[in-house]
Inverse folding.
């Protein structure tokens, strides 16, 4: 019996010890770097699905498998931390904030680096700091968030934002930055779902971007998307529902106001126009009530000891405020990483597919123009239900009828796939081989039904965005259809070797690589037809048309240069040297060969060098308590531009030159229509940058100051030349220079942080001065200036608004100088010789009249938290820029008030003033504004029940108000391209959005 008792005692003791070895209860608290509790932080036992969520006081309890288990602790905005228990049953864990952590990882070209050791100008924006809203455009996500980044957006959901970094660098139409997504260069940024983004790094100076060579002149934006974690599995769901309304419209006269004006000035409507109506034509083209929009995202992530996965599906739908205008997109994303061979080899598979549908407004800009020109005394429909039209009046078309008798749709499917491999080698080497393939398929269709044949092709002009000029449009007879299908593909192979080695106080990091890229554009076809027996098939069956019976009709087979093949081959290298984390040096060089340039200049070199001094690491800083980080940086680099022109730019091309009469018949004529330029060279942009990074007051205040000088040389432009030297009369050549000089400041402050309340704010502002410093070419016969941007409003033939001029910025206004009215009440202008005239000469009596370039930009972000509530308020401002309000000029025509509507504030104008509407300084306005861009109020429920780790609900208001003196619809006029700051009868109304959203983590 005693032996049995002894055996039972040993058994139960062993059992108890075994139970302790298998399971133990752990409790603790999770704090931030200031010692404040973090509610709803995630605590998970590494290698398992066993997890807990901290309560309001940051405390948690968790039963783990053994006393030596490891915990992984995470919280949004803080660095994940792994903690080994080592037998402890009560622990305190402090997480470091990513916003102030000097070890924050920044993505740069072909690698990553610690922010504390950067020698270049890089701005990073985390996912939580991006703009909220039903947004499918990365440019809009960044609007106002990065100093020096000028983003202008339209109210049209089918139009992408214009993004310009540190001022325009070229006269080519392409001024947007180069995008790199998860290491894949040149990705179409629309393929990325906003909810999948982790961080966006904006590489500003050439020392940071030179590693991308000829594609980096306009800056580089690196986007990093989510990956799974091997330590935890997670399912997340987010959705947002928004309702939009037009925030502002032009103040046009209603029927009563216009009748009073016409009667007062002894004018009269024609019977064809005056039907006794009172129509608000701006309202007539809008959807009734509030316009809905939604975004939904479902993601799953997880992993194991040797790999991880992340998968998501996103759906975005946004209806435009104009009738029939809608955008929808479905994005599927899969990212898998797998380690092998004792984790010495890592394979990655990343596939994203985006399917988009754009329902455009047919002849959108004409519809917008007609909605403000149409008389309120004209009705939308006749008594019999047909649309009202007055075809006696030239250029007078019913905008509602135009929208409802036409289709304009585009479908795109965008696939990006990459296969990556990384091999760890001895002596600190790693080898990467990346393969990527991108394919964009687009299907576009337009149909203008038989109603449109009433619109005389002799006076129906389109209304393109500046700087394009209007042209006549022919809609055929009995319906006109156009269909095209094109494919663009991009194949990239990149191979590079990294070396990371420390020798005592010396650290070296190097990368050496090779890149091969081939682009095939416009692989497809286009066709058009007319004379259809019915309208209800729209553009879906071109075979039903019969163009051969319509005299003079020509099938539109599209651009003869649509198909292109381009190739780029590059060699690149970069070396970083670090001495005691105190003195930092970086140098890089890239050699690019591109097929788009002249045969004599297809290769270019793009070097860079940068250095930094971490002053806070010096001995004399050891005992001070002001700075926790103080770094001085300086860099110089050169990049190139290979966008904005095509594979045939440098080639000789001949084509049709019309017909000539020979031997009794018209014979086709062919000859040169583009001159060859074997010496066409790279545009080069060199940037010198000096920066200062600092953190003071124990992390409460941090920021950076940047001063830069960016110069573009050998700027490519299509110059007019002497036809004796070049028979075509134009040639694409290097000839111009452009300069951008500026200052950028970013400040971040943790103003208040208590147990229940916190307030943090960040402010960024920037100043840039743009100047064309040279605009000549040995062949150029136009002197040092080119007059351009010609909206061609009524009575404005030949009038231009801007000029490209040496010593002036891009967007320099050049027009008549308004000098009030003379004694007879006629508008007068300052002539070239300084005298006053009522009969100014176009182009001769012109004066410089301000610039569209903003002098100052600002973004101000404010974050408040109170217990489980959070409030974000974001203001954005642009100052010192001018806008040419050509829309206002065209609506300031009192002498034609009986045939076209006018603005309310034109009521005091006299019809006898035949000059009132002329494009002049009278219609150049201050474009400065401050906008409450985003306000979000949220509530975090934390953990709810067994399966829900986190629920957060919130409400967002976008564009709540704008403070401006501008008289147009909105001062956020297009700032990209080569005709910035022109409002020309084409402004799609901006909206105020009310958004309700929810984020759930399972």
């Amino acid at each position: 019996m005693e032996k049995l008792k002894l055996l039972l005692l040993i058994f139960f003791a062993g059992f108890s010890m075994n139970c302790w070895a298998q399971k133990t209860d752990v409790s603790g608290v999770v704090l931030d770097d200031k010692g404040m509790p973090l509610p709803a932080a995630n605590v998970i036992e590494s290698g398992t699905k066993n997890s807990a969520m901290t309560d309001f006081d940051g405390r948690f309890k968790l039963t783990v498998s053994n006393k030596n288990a490891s915990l992984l602790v995470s919280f949004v905005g803080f660095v994940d931390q792994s903690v080994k228990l080592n037998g402890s049953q009560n622990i305190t864990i402090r997480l470091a904030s990513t916003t102030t952590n000097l070890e924050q990882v920044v993505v740069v070209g072909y690698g990553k680096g610690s922010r504390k050791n950067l020698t270049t100008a890089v701005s990073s924006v985390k996912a939580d700091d991006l703009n909220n809203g039903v947004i499918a455009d990365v440019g809009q996500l960044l609007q106002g968030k990065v100093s020096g980044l000028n983003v202008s957006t339209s109210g049209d959901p089918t139009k992408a934002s214009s993004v310009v970094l540190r001022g325009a660098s070229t006269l080519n139409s392409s001024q947007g930055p180069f995008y790199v997504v998860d290491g894949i260069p040149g990705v179409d940024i629309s393929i990325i779902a906003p909810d999948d983004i982790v961080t966006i790094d904006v590489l500003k100076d050439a020392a940071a971007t030179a590693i991308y060579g000829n594609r980096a002149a306009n800056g580089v934006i690196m986007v990093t998307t989510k990956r799974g974690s091997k330590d935890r599995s997670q399912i997340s769901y987010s959705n947002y529902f928004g309702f939009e309304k037009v925030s502002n419209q032009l103040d046009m006269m209603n029927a009563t106001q216009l009748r009073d004006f016409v009667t007062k000035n002894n004018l009269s409507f024609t019977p064809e126009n005056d039907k006794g109506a009172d129509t608000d034509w701006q309202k007539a083209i809008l959807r009734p009530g509030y316009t809905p929009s939604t975004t939904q995202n479902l993601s799953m992530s997880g992993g194991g000891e040797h790999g991880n996965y992340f998968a998501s599906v996103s759906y975005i739908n946004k209806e435009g405020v104009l009738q029939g205008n809608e955008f929808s997109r479905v994005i599927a994303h899969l990212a898998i990483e797998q380690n092998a061979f004792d984790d010495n080899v890592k394979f990655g598979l990343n596939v994203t597919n985006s399917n988009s549908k754009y329902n455009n407004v047919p002849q959108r800009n004409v519809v917008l123009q007609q909605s403000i020109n149409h008389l309120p005394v004209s009705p939308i429909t006749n008594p019999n239900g047909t649309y009202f039209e007055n075809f006696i009046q030239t250029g007078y078309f019913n905008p509602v009828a135009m929208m409802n008798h036409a289709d304009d749709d585009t479908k795109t499917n965008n696939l990006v796939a990459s296969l990556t491999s990384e091999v760890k080698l001895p002596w600190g080497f790693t080898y990467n081989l990346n393969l990527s393939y991108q394919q964009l398929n687009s299907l576009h269709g337009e149909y203008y039904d038989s109603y449109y044949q009433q619109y005389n092709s002799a006076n129906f002009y389109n209304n393109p965005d500046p700087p394009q000029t209007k042209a006549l449009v022919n809609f055929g007879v009995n319906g006109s259809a156009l269909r095209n299908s094109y494919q663009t593909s991009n194949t990239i192979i990149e191979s590079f070797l990294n070396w990371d080695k420390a020798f005592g106080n010396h650290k070296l990091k190097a990368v050496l690589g090779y890149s091969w890229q081939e682009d095939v554009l416009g692989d497809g076809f286009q066709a058009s037809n007319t004379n259809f027996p019915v309208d209800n098939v729209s553009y879906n069956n071109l075979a039903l048309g019969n163009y051969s019976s319509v005299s003079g009709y020509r099938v539109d087979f599209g651009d003869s240069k649509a198909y292109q093949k381009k190739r780029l081959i590059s060699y690149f290298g970069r070396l970083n040297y670090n001495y005691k984390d105190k003195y930092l040096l970086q140098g890089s060089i890239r050699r690019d060969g591109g097929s788009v340039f002249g045969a004599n200049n297809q290769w270019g070199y793009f070097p860079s060098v940068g250095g930094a001094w971490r002053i806070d690491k010096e001995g004399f800083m050891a005992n001070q308590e002001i700075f926790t980080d103080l770094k001085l940086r300086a860099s110089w680099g050169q990049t190139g531009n290979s966008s904005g022109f095509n594979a045939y730019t440098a080639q000789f091309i001949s084509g049709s030159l019309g017909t000539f009469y020979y031997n009794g018949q018209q014979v086709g004529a062919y000859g040169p229509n583009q001159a060859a330029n074997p010496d066409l060279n790279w545009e080069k942009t060199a940037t010198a940058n000096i920066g200062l990074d600092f953190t003071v007051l124990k992390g409460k205040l941090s920021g950076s100051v940047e001063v830069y000088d960016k110069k573009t040389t050998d700027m490519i432009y299509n110059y007019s030349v002497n036809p004796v030297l070049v028979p075509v009369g134009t040639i694409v050549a290097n000839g111009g220079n452009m300069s951008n000089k500026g200052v950028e400041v970013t400040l971040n402050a943790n103003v208040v942080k208590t147990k229940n309340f916190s307030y943090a704010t960040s402010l960024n502002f920037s100043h840039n001065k743009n100047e064309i410093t040279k605009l000549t070419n040995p062949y150029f016969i136009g002197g040092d200036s080119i007059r351009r941007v010609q909206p061609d409003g009524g009575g404005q033939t030949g009038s231009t608004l801007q000029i490209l001029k040496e010593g002036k910025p891009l967007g320099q206004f050049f027009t008549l100088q308004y000098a009030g009215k003379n004694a007879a009440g006629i508008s007068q202008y300052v002539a070239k010789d300084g005298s006053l005239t009522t009969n100014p000469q176009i182009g001769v009596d012109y004066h410089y009249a301000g610039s569209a370039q903003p002098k100052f930009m600002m973004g101000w972000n404010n974050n408040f938290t109170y217990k489980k509530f959070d409030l974000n308020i974001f203001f954005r401002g642009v100052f010192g820029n001018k806008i040419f309000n050509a829309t206002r000029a065209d609506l300031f025509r009192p002498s034609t008030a009986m045939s076209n509507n006018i603005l309310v504030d034109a009521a005091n104008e006299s019809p006898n003033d035949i000059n009132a509407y002329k494009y002049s300084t009278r219609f150049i306005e201050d474009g400065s504004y401050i906008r409450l861009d985003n306000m979000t109020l949220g509530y975090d429920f934390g953990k709810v029940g067994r399966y829900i780790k986190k629920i957060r609900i919130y409400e967002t208001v976008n564009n709540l108000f704008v403070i401006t003196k501008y008289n147009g619809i909105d001062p956020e006029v297009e700032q990209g391209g080569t005709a910035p700051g022109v409002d020309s009868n084409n402004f799609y109304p901006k909206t105020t959005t009310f958004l309700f959203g929810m984020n759930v983590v399972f």
